[in-house]
């Protein structure tokens, strides 16, 4: 018998086994690499005369109106259903490759709502031509609109000049390129005529039961300048909205600042006692200096009054000189008082304007407001003293005879000197010494009472940082000349330096009181630290501006010295 010619294997069972070997060959080769890959090639080539189709390895979607059945193999080769119902349209799949014997059938992994299925589907029912790697195929349903899908997919990416109209146009542009049957219409590009007559509706329409591509916001952004923006003003409306929002926020800030300024004025009577106590402490510490200044003023006033009452030219001239000196001292005190008032006034407004409703900052602003009023009052006293001394000097001067009434003698060498007057000089009563002059010119230390603007240098704080510092250590190392006094509500203590500036405040923990502020409820208490200029510091001694959003957090320093 003549030997038959070798033909390709036609046994369906063997073909099925070989097709499975082909499908899982890539997975095995990825683990065992070259040897298994070579073995697979030998088996496939022996079965199919060396013919081989390339793997696909692409994501895709079921793109068929009636979906697609998924089988264990091609239907012609007896493949059985893997899923009783067809995969719905737009089901995402990953296509591994074609069947070796029936390349029109593709092996896929399908990600349906009811599970993951693997098997063969007809290749024409799968679309792997995605417009971009992360695109999705969407099945048009009842009620779907371009506006609705744009909101769903792109609302988080809307920005000036590229609103949802732009993303509606992106949908039309992408699907025109890929030509799916689910979308029709023209770009949304309204004219001024459309806007005036209220016709800004979308011309983009969907066809129920068909499909369209949905792309990612990132891909849509790459189409800017290609796809019409769909905006009449090309972002101008967004600019106006941003401007309106900024104006609204600015008005809110201004109104809040006005409320806080008025609140600081309204609350200021609460802190009068505190300011008076601080002043009393300063007066007590500097009582000798203060009494000495007042005594010198009164003595000078008394001497001037006595000399003004004497009927002598030289006595009255000295009285005038004394009054002018006292007026000059009062003028200097007046200027310093105004400078101090301006300083406290500026700090009051700064604190109140930036308080943003915070009660603690409003309280500090109230104190600065009172200090400003105090400085203004003392400046007014100084002014009254200057005015009184000047009037007295003028009064004495007016009582003196004019130069023409002076008797002048000439010596043999031509020297002239006054030997008398043509009319007698009478004494002048200038009244008792005024209290406004000495009180206004009293120079208290620090910023109390409009004292000298050149305060003495403060002693340096004993540490560069408050990290880990213990309360006992601080008390042992309090700088000389500084005072330690209780806080207003007796919840801790504070240090006042030589210039009357609060340098450190320590508040004990108050966790048992639910009404206490959050800082007082900290486990171990907290510090407030200031430099010689009254600026708040953080735990490492850095100045924190009151406008810093974290001002409260950074300047309430947790106590670490356990």
Quick summary:
With 562 residues, this protein is α+β, with helices and mostly antiparallel strands. The protein contains 14 helices and 17 strands. It has helices at residues 12-32, 34-47, 146-154, 164-178, 192-196, 217-221, 236-267, 272-285, 287-309, 313-353, 359-399, 436-441, 471-476, 551-555; strands spanning 58-62, 92-98, 105-112, 115-122, 126-127, 136-139, 183-184, 205-206, 211-214, 406-410, 416-421, 483-486, 492-496, 502-507, 526-530, 536-537, 557-558.
Summarize the structure in words:
This protein has about 550 residues and is an alpha+beta fold. The protein folds into 4 domains: about 20-125, no CATH class; about 135-220, no CATH class; about 240-390, no CATH class; about 470-560, no CATH class. About 40% of the residues lie in helices and about 15% in strands. The protein contains 14 helices and 17 strands. The chain has helices at about 10-30, 35-45, 145-155, 165-180, 190-195, 215-220, 235-265, 270-285, 285-310, 315-355, 360-400, 435-440, 470-475, 550-555, and strands at about 60, 90-100, 105-110, 115-120, 125, 135-140, 185, 205, 210-215, 405-410, 415-420, 485, 490-495, 500-505, 525-530, 535, 555-560. The strands form 5 sheets. Strands 12, 13, 14, 15, 16 and 17 form a 6-stranded antiparallel sheet that branches. Helix 3 packs across helix 4. The longest helix has about 40 residues, at about 315-355. The N and C termini lie far apart (about 105 Å).
Secondary-structure class: alpha+beta
Q: What is the residue-mean pLDDT, rounded to a whole number?
A: 76
Number of individual domains: 4
* Helix percent band: 40-55%
Which blocks of ≥5 consecutive residues have pLDDT under 50?
1-10, 26-31, 191-199, 443-455
Q: What is the molecular shape?
A: elongated
**DSSP helical segment count:** 14
Name the beta content range.
Answer: 5-15%
Main sheet properties: 6 strands, antiparallel
Number of strands: 17
User: Roughly how many Å apart are the termini?
Assistant: 107 Å
Indicate the radius of gyration in whole angstroms: 48 Å
């Amino acid at each position: 018998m003549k030997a038959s010619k070798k033909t390709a294997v036609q046994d369906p069972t063997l073909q099925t086994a070989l097709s499975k070997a082909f499908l899982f060959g890539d997975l095995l080769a990825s683990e065992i690499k070259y040897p298994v890959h070579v073995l697979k090639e030998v088996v496939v080539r022996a079965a199919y005369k060396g013919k081989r189709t390339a793997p696909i390895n692409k994501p895709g979607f079921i793109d068929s109106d009636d979906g697609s059945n998924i089988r264990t193999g091609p239907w012609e080769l007896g493949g059985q259903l893997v899923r009783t119902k067809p995969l719905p349209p737009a089901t995402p799949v990953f296509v591994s490759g074609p069947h070796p014997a029936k390349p029109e059938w593709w092996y896929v992994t399908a990600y349906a709502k009811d599970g993951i299925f693997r098997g063969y589907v007809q290749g024409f029912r799968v679309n792997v031509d995605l417009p971009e790697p992360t695109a999705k195929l969407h099945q048009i349903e009842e009620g779907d609109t371009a506006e609705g899908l744009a909101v769903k997919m792109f609302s988080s990416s809307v920005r000036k000049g590229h609103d949802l109209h732009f993303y509606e146009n992106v949908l039309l542009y992408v699907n025109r390129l890929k030509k799916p049957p689910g979308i029709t219409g023209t770009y949304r590009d309204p004219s001024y005529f459309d806007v005036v007559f209220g016709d800004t509706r979308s011309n983009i329409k969907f066809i129920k039961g068909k499909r369209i591509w949905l792309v990612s916001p990132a891909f849509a952004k790459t189409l800017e300048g290609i796809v019409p923006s769909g905006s009449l003003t090309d972002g101008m409306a967004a600019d106006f909205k941003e401007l309106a929002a900024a104006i609204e926020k600015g008005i809110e800030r201004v109104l809040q600042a006005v409320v806080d300024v008025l609140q600081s004025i309204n609350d200021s009577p609460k802190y009068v006692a505190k300011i008076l106590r601080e002043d009393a402490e300063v007066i007590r510490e500097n009582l000798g200096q203060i009494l000495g200044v007042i005594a010198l003023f009164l003595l000078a006033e008394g001497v001037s009054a006595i000399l003004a009452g004497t009927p002598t030219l030289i006595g009255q001239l000295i009285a005038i000189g004394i009054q002018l000196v006292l007026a000059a001292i009062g003028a200097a005190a007046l200027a310093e008082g105004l400078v101090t008032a301006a300083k406290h006034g500026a700090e009051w407004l700064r604190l109140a304007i930036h308080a943003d409703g915070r009660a603690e900052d409003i309280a500090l602003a109230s104190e600065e407001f009172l200090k400003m009023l105090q400085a203004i009052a003392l400046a007014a006293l100084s002014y009254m003293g200057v005015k009184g001394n000047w009037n007295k000097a003028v009064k004495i001067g007016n009582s003196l005879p004019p130069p023409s009434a002076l008797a002048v003698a000439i010596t043999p060498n031509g020297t002239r000197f006054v030997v008398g007057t043509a009319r007698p000089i009478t004494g002048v009563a200038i009244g008792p010494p005024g209290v406004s002059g000495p009180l206004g010119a009293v120079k208290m230390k620090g910023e109390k009472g409009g004292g000298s603007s050149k305060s003495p240098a403060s002693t340096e704080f004993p540490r560069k940082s408050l990290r880990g510092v213990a309360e006992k250590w601080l008390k042992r190392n309090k700088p000389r000349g500084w005072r330690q006094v209780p806080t207003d509500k007796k919840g801790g203590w504070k240090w006042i330096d030589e210039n009357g500036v609060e340098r450190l405040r320590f508040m004990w923990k108050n966790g048992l009181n639910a009404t206490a502020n959050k800082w007082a409820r900290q486990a171990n208490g907290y510090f407030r630290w200031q430099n010689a200029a009254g600026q708040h510091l953080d735990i490492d001694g850095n100045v924190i501006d009151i406008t810093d959003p974290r001002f409260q957090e950074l300047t309430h320093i947790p106590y670490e010295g356990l």
